[in-house]
Amino acid sequence: MRTPLEGTAIARRASDTPDLWDDVRLQKLWLSVDRSDWRCLAIIGASPAMDTLRIAELFAQLAWRYRGQPSTVCDMRDLSMRLVDYQISEMKAQVASGARLVVALRSIFENPTAAPLARQAALAALCIALGETDFRGAEETIAAIGRERVAGAIVFRGGRRYSMAPPSR
After folding, report:
1. Which H or E run contains 103?
2. What is the CATH number of the domain that holds 55?
3. What pLDDT, in 10s, does the model give residues 17-40?
4. pTM of the model
5. Number of compact structural domains in the chain
6. Residue 102 in 3-state DSSP?
7. Residue 77 lies in a domain
8. What digits encode the pLDDT tens for the residues 64-98?
């Protein structure tokens, strides 16, 4: 008995949409954090309800795509105060073993553990939503984690809902 695909050649037409990884803005974002040999990157919201986990996953994919280095995504958005010291020592141990970590954190206004965890990272990327993140909140976040650690900001248009699709041309 013959299966439906047996003996059939499947050709796929090249997509008219550009590859996400070829997006110039994404490449610039990667270059801004790849300026130093970081082993731990914190992704932190500058206002409540930012989806930092998706951004952390994106950075892990970028590390693999552009450097060929696997990264571990650590979801520490809901870490309790009781576990901060333990998680900091775990982060240090993983980095010392050669792992590359991308840590997703809530804003300092939602979870006070975000600041000490972000201070443990070599670099931090601030997530800002146009029209929702106020200047004071961004400044307070930068002060709490240390200006020297902030690699830059990822600014989202249209609030906290964003698309990972390439921009329209």
Report:
1. strand 101-105
2. 3.40.50.300
3. 556 667 787 788 788 888 777 899
4. 0.80
5. 1
6. strand
7. yes
8. 888 888 889 999 999 999 999 999 999 999 999 98
